[in-house]
Design brief:
Elements lengths: L6 H22 L2 H17 L5 H15 L5 H30 L10 H4 L8 H6 L23 H30 L6 H24 L4 H8 L3 H19 L8 H23 L3 H12 L6 E4 L2 H6 L3 E4 L9 H6 L4 E5 L5 H8 L4 E9 L2 E8 L2 H5 L1
Parallel strand pairs: 1-2, 1-3
Antiparallel strand pairs: 3-5, 4-5
Helix pairs in contact: 1-2, 1-3, 2-4, 3-4, 3-8, 7-8, 7-9, 7-10, 8-9, 10-11
């Protein structure tokens, strides 16, 4: 048995702390809250590099307020300085060390700063320096299977980006959000401008990631969309009130609209979750059964979850979510015959890096109920030598 800590939960908490403190600082024009927001933003970046985007969001809102003459210039500079100084103090040691290793300004080991913004397709020098034996293939490499080729062009990338956002909120959540935004329509207040800056800045960042890396997952969209759920909450009582009006009964308890709205929202969601839970491992099951059908001898499956090896009727070889554990030679030395990777643990960038190494090849890709799984076969040592 193995255990590890994923970054998504920690990042979401720090990101929401940065959003909340930024809003408090902007609405109260508080230097203290600006410093707190900078601290949360710095810690969010140290957890995941996209956490630093909240700096751009806060800076954009302050700039707009100064231009609109709602803030004095010196107040805007003081607020921005408090935010930036704390954030820089937290991120600079890691940023300097990583950029020195890469030989260029870089925010992450996976992508350089220009690649994160979609200005180039270059891999971060930090990753090249750390993994010289594992070069990344080009995004348009004809040796890669079609599933790993990113959307070609501006419009397909935008469509895929919005599809991932819709998949994150699901149809019921998206409907509630749209209804809530309609109910809150009007001239944007400071809160509205703050959320517009949040969606605009991170939408641009995720679009650059889609154009450069070819993928954006629900874990990228979720932290950005969570602050908007307050608008979705406005829709539940409004929907309940509309249903009560259709029933044309003159008097209803005060709590009735909200209760009916929650039933209308939660009911389908609970049913949908039950359906997903009943078949959430379907993709892993298909991959395991495929591994069992193609093997005459013992099957040893390297995967995060033991149930995938169970479906393959083989032995489970636990692996951690790092590229070191997926080194083909290490897998062969540990006796692995197959590897099963799920999209919620190893994203497509990891899949590309694994496929670029000699000694493993793609058998098949499976998708069921929104989960993506790939089955890889570890080639014997003699096949690799030949």
């Amino acid at each position: 048995f193995t255990s590890d800590v994923q970054s998504e939960g920690l990042y979401l908490g720090l990101f929401m702390g940065a959003v909340w403190a930024s809003w408090r600082g902007l609405s109260e024009r508080s230097i203290r809250w600006a410093a707190v927001a900078g601290g949360f933003a710095g810690l969010a970046y140290l957890t995941r590099p996209e956490g630093l985007g909240i700096v751009a969001v806060a800076g954009l809102v302050v700039l707009v307020e100064v231009i609109r003459r709602r803030w004095r210039l010196r107040d805007g500079i003081a607020w921005g300085a408090a935010f930036s100084v704390v954030a820089v103090l937290l991120v600079s040691p890691y940023l300097v060390a990583m950029s020195t290793q890469a030989g260029e300004l870089t925010l992450t080991r996976k992508k350089s700063l220009s690649a994160m913004m979609g200005l180039s397709d270059e891999t971060s020098g930090a990753l090249r320096a750390a993994s010289p034996s594992a070069p990344l293939p080009a995004l348009n490499d004809p040796m890669l299977p079609p599933e790993f080729v990113p959307p070609d062009g501006l419009v397909p990338s935008l469509v895929e980006l919005f599809r991932k956002a819709l998949k994150t909120l699901r149809y019921d959540g998206t409907f509630l959000l749209l209804v809530g935004l309609w109910l809150a329509r009007g001239r944007p207040t400071l809160r509205g401008r703050f959320f517009l800056a949040l969606i605009g800045a991170y939408g641009l960042l995720l679009f650059g990631l889609m154009m450069s890396a070819g993928y954006v997952s629900r874990r990228h969209w979720l932290p950005v969309l969570v602050p908007l759920l307050g608008y979705a909450a406005l829709a539940a009582p409004a929907l309940g009130q509309a249903m009560l009006k259709l029933l044309r009964r003159p008097r209803w308890p005060a709590w009735a609209p909200a209760a009916l709205g929650l039933i209308l929202v939660i009911g389908p969601a609970v049913y949908d979750m039950g359906q997903m839970r009943a078949s959430r491992h379907l993709a892993e099951r298909w991959a395991g059964e495929r591994a069992a059908s193609m093997s005459e001898g013992d099957v040893v499956v390297a995967t995060r979850r033991s149930y995938a090896a169970y479906y393959a009727r083989g032995r489970h070889l636990p692996i951690q979510p790092s590229m070191d554990t997926l080194e083909p030679k290490k897998l062969r030395d540990r006796g692995a015959t197959h590897v099963i990777l799920s999209g919620d643990t190893f994203d497509q960038a990891h899949w590309k890096m694994v496929l670029a190494r000699p000694g493993v090849h793609l058998v098949e890709r499976f998708e069921a109920n929104g989960r993506e799984v790939v089955l890889l076969e570890v080639e014997p040592a003699r096949s690799v030598e030949q």
